[in-house]
């Protein structure tokens, strides 16, 4: 006849409870590790998305600026010109002299087109400073053109900046400031 030993049951129950507690702790630790890993993955994904968005925005802004600059450059007679009375101090196509052009294209500020021998209409050209084609095409004598187109810089001053270029430079500065403000707030 077997004897009933209650202390053995208590020991087995205690061991079972201890194992169960350990299993619960392991399960909780595993769940916490999984949650931490998921959070890290989400953070990494968010960082990658933010970096991609920043790169895309930078590329878009750069493309827009380049397109605007190209459009401005394609327009004739836009730029900072530096001309003297009888010769060009710059090799750019927006520079003209009294009787010669820097290239065979329409670089002459005259009512007429630029020929290989120079300005075909000297009287309408401003000899003191570079002017736009529209300003030089006002007509009249050389003195009249100087009065209308060169009055801001003087008939013999060195540099003339087209208003369109000044506006473009201001727009570029504004866009750069907006870009810096945007990325500093992210």
UniProtKB/TrEMBL annotation:
Residues 20-78 form a coiled coil. The keyword Coiled coil applies. Keywords: Coiled coil, Signal. It comes from Eimeria tenella. It comes from the Eukaryota. Residues 1-25 form the signal peptide. This is Uncharacterized protein.
């Amino acid at each position: 006849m077997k004897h009933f030993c209650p202390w053995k049951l208590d020991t087995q129950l205690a061991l079972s409870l201890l194992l169960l507690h350990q299993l619960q702790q392991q399960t909780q630790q595993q769940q916490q590790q999984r949650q931490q890993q998921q959070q890290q993955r989400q953070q990494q994904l968010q960082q990658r998305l933010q970096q991609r968005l920043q790169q895309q925005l930078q590329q878009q802004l750069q493309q827009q600026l380049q397109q605007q600059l190209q459009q401005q450059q394609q327009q004739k007679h836009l730029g900072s010109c530096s001309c003297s009375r009888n010769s060009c101090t710059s090799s750019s196509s927006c520079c003209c002299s009294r009787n010669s052009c820097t290239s065979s294209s329409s670089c002459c500020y005259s009512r007429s087109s630029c020929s290989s021998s120079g300005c075909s209409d000297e009287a309408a050209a401003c000899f003191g400073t570079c002017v736009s084609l529209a300003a030089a095409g006002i007509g009249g004598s050389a003195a009249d053109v100087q009065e209308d187109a060169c009055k801001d810089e003087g008939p013999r001053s060195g540099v003339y900046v087209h208003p369109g270029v000044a506006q473009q430079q201001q727009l570029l500065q504004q866009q750069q400031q907006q870009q810096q403000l945007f990325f500093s707030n992210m």
